[in-house]
Amino acid sequence: MRSKTLTIVLLFILLVSAACTSQVNSGVPTPGSISALGTQGPTITPGPSPTAIVPVNLTVLAAASLTESFTELGKLFEAQNPGVKVTFNFAGSQQLAQQLDQGANADVFASASTKYMDAAVKSKRVNQIDPKIFVKNSLVVIFPKDNPAGLKTLTDLAKPGLKLDLADKSVPVGQYSLDFLDKAVKDPAFDPQFKVNVLKNVVSYEDNVKSVVTKVSLGEADAGIVYVTDITADAAKKISQLDIPDSMNTVATYPIAAITGSKN
Predict the structure, then answer these.
(1) Is the predicted pLDDT of residue 39 greater than 80, yes or no?
(2) Fewer CB atoms near the end CB (10 Å): N or C, the chain?
């Protein structure tokens, strides 16, 4: 349901953008004027010729967790705007912010964290007043369908020998995962050493959330922490999930903005 809601919200964002775009002329000529000249009948003055469609390429830098939603919406946007090609660069938000700081050409930046949108503002690639929160997300624990570690509750993440895959703390979802562990140790249901023991089980830190999904799906890790929207229809065939209570979860806010100097 949350994944569907994400798609609906994103579709609304793109449809609003499409409604505000005036790059493609409708091609419908203005009716010519008609005047009667004696007995020769009416003379029709042709209206202006239809404007040719000018090809436009939109480059969108988007957080990896938006891959499925944005890919689908990009196709819809292209279908509704003839001549427009949408090119996506999906990666960790921290990587995208760094690319912008280094002068990467783009039209739109969609981040999984306000931290990296702020970085884009600081580097003057985004105007301070432009970022808008367009969607929110939350965390979930995933594990392979065959559940090799026998996970039943969140406390099992601290079991000795469990292979846990997390995103690096420089990645928004990686920091959110650490925030979950900090909240858990304050809950009486968890051991005070829960965070320490969980981090002992980490076998790899990834530079984007999709890498966590991939490794868990392939059975290279017994568990991982990702966004709920990363459990797509295809991913759900290979992985199962453990929900993280709202009291320990983090609601990730996603800002989006146009890039300064965009030709489009």
Answers:
(1) no
(2) N
CATH number at residue 130: 3.40.190.10
- The range of the structural domain enclosing residue 191 comes to 139-248
- For residue 18, is it within any domain? no
3-class secondary structure for the chain?
Answer: CHHHHHHHHHHHHHHHHHHHCCCCCCCCCCCCCEEECCCCCEEECCCCCCCCCCCEEEEEEEEHHHHHHHHHHHHHHHHHCCCEEEEEEEECHHHHHHHHHCCCCCCEEECCCHHHHHHHHHCCCCCCCCCEEEEEECEEEEEECCCCCCCCCHHHHHCCCCCEEEECCCCHHHHHHHHHHHHHCCCCCCCCCHHHHHHHCEEEEECCHHHHHHHHHCCCCCEEEEEHHHCCCCHHHCEEEEECCCCCCCCEEEEEEECCCCCC
- Name the domain count of the chain: 2
Mean pLDDT of the chain: 86
Q: Classify residue 144: in a domain, yes or no.
A: yes
Burial class (CB in 10 A: 0-12, 13-18, 19+), 24: middle
Task: Determine how β-strand 84-91 pairs with β-strand 56-63.
Answer: parallel
- Dihedral, CA atoms, 136, 202, 64, 3, nearest 10 degrees? -40
pLDDT at 218 exceeding the cut of 50: yes
Pick from 1-5, 83-87, 160-164, 251-255: least confident:
1-5
Is the pLDDT reported for residue 1 higher than 60? no
